[in-house]
């Protein structure tokens, strides 16, 4: 009756899909991701979980690990999303990056490469 919510189960599955074990992401961070999705009106779209997990997974895994698992084309696509998010400074992808920074889960190489700062 009081098991994990469908949202968290879907997010866990999506994180596994990008080769990031859900146990490596604290529950509070996962709950925040689900709440961000709801804030952006994408809580009812189960197909949105893989894209969200991909961005968060990239920020936690870093470019080298991400590329080793997903290949160069997918790496280029996610890096384009990162640059777009950082240029815009807002939106779901930008908030996922900021969450990774505040949760101290982001790869230091990405912070240095993109000059990410949390203010």
Summarize the structure in words.
- The chain has 119 residues and is mostly helical.
- 68% of the residues lie in helices and 0% in strands.
How much β-strand is present in the residues?
under 5%
**What does the radius of gyration come to?**
14 Å
Low-confidence stretches: none
Distance between the termini: 40 Å
Helix content: 55-70%
Number of helices: 7
How many strands, what sense, and barrel or not for the largest sheet?
A: none
Q: Could you give the order of the helices and strands?
A: HHHHHHH
- The number of strands is 0
Please tell me the overall pLDDT: 92
Q: Please identify the structural class as seen in this structure.
A: mainly alpha
Shape: globular
List its traits:
single chain, mainly alpha, 119 residues
